[in-house]
User: What shape does this take?
Amino acid sequence: MRYNILYFASLRDGAGRDSEEVESVHANARLLYDELRQRHGFTVRQQALRLAVNGAFASWDHGLADGDEVAFLPPVSGG
Amino acid sequence: MNQFHLCDQPIDSAALSRALSDASAGACVTFEGWVRNENAGRAVKRLDYQAYVPLAQSEGERILGEAKQRFTLIGAACAHRVGALAIGDLAVWVGVSAAHRDAAFAACRYIIDEVKLRVPIWKNEHYASGESGWLHPDNTPVT
Assistant: This one.
């Protein structure tokens, strides 16, 4: 499955890029994050993140589809 | 009509207030969030805001819609800066108009509280020490 992964804030710094095209066997978002976490050395736990798929917040149980835009969102600090 | 604005230039709060004016409004309440020179005992020199733009836009609009459902309002708007800000800059503006002040005060508070909790925008503070850090408050995700 191919995904376009979006990174923000500390994840963006950790990945060294704001997005990347990723090939993964995982349709499970938790496993996908875990794979990327290991690859980039992210220190943020999955439980601390919110998931967004194709521009909308999604449950971590949301099954990913080929071509999805997936964003892992650290705790927000706007305002 | 889109009333949630992400701005990469200084927020024109006067224009936003004027846009809320309405002959049936007896009250207008606005909130300004300014960039402060200190956070958790550390001297802040400047900061950056970064947004997941499409989702920040839709979630901001959603919050304004919720405020209009919960409170009897005439209008509600919010503008949030993105990019680099200096101490004293206007970071976020919220404005509400209503027939009466109770709803206006309560709705304004609701909007800024929800924006801070939910909208995908992140703050990177640059400290006097030369260090910087993205703020990721220890809040539990909603979902």
User: Anything to note?
Assistant: Residues 2-73 of chain A form a domain with the Ubiquitin-like (UB roll) fold (CATH 3.10.20.30). Residues 29-40 of chain A form the longest helix (12 residues). The interface with chain B takes residues 6, 8-10, 12-13, 44, 47-52, 55-60, 71, 73-79 of chain A (CB under 8 Å).
